[in-house]
Design brief:
Elements lengths: L10 H4 L1 H13 L8 H35 L3 H24 L7 H20 L16 H6 L5
Helix pairs in contact: 3-4, 3-5
C-alpha cells in the first residue's frame, strides 16, 4: 500500500528563506494584505520562546557549575568551573540587558533550570558519593545569581 504525501503548497513550507525575504519586502512596502499573517505570527511567537529558552539554557549551565563548585571537592576542576560560571553570568547579563522583559520570566526560568541542572550533576556525581540538596540553598534573585560566589 502506497501512501501519498501531500505536496507542500505554501511558500513558507517550501522555502523558508524565500518566505522570510518576501515577507520582509511586503512589510516594507506596506503590502499588509498579502502578508502570510498566520506564519508570521507563529514565527514572532517562536522568537520570544527562543529568548526564554536561551535564558533557561544559560541558567542551567550556571546552576550546574555552581553546584559542582559548591558541593564537589575536586580542586583541580575549580578553575574550569569558575570560568564557566563567569562566562554564563556575562552572557545572562548581556541577554537581560538586551531583553529586559526576560527579568519577568526569571523565577520560572530558575525553576526549570534548577530541575535540569540538578538532574545533570546527580547523574554525573551521585555514584561517586556526592550529595546535592533538592532545592537551591541560596538566594535566587537576579543580582545574587549573577554576582555572588556562593562557595566562599
Amino acid at each position: 500500500m502506497t501512501i501519498a504525501i501531500a505536496p507542500k503548497t505554501s511558500l513558507y513550507d517550501r522555502d523558508y528563506l524565500l518566505w522570510t525575504e518576501e515577507t520582509i519586502a511586503k512589510l516594507k512596502a506596506r503590502d499588509f494584505e498579502h502578508v502570510d499573517i498566520e506564519n508570521l505570527i507563529e514565527e514572532i511567537e517562536s522568537l520570544g520562546k527562543s529568548e526564554k529558552q536561551e535564558l533557561e539554557n544559560r541558567l542551567e549551565t550556571l546552576l550546574a557549575h555552581l553546584l559542582k563548585r559548591i558541593y564537589i571537592n575536586m580542586p583541580d576542576c575549580f578553575n574550569g568551573w569558575e570560568n564557566t560560571i563567569r562566562e554564563q553570568r556575562r552572557r545572562i547579563t548581556l541577554r537581560l540587558r538586551k531583553t529586559p522583559s526576560l527579568k519577568n520570566y526569571w523565577d520560572e526560568a530558575m525553576d526549570d533550570a534548577w530541575f535540569l541542572a540538578l538532574g545533570l550533576v546527580q547523574d554525573q556525581y551521585s555514584k561517586k558519593g556526592y550529595q546535592f540538596p533538592d532545592t537551591w540553598q541560596f538566594s535566587r534573585d537576579i543580582d545574587s545569581m549573577l554576582n555572588v560566589d556562593f562557595w566562599e
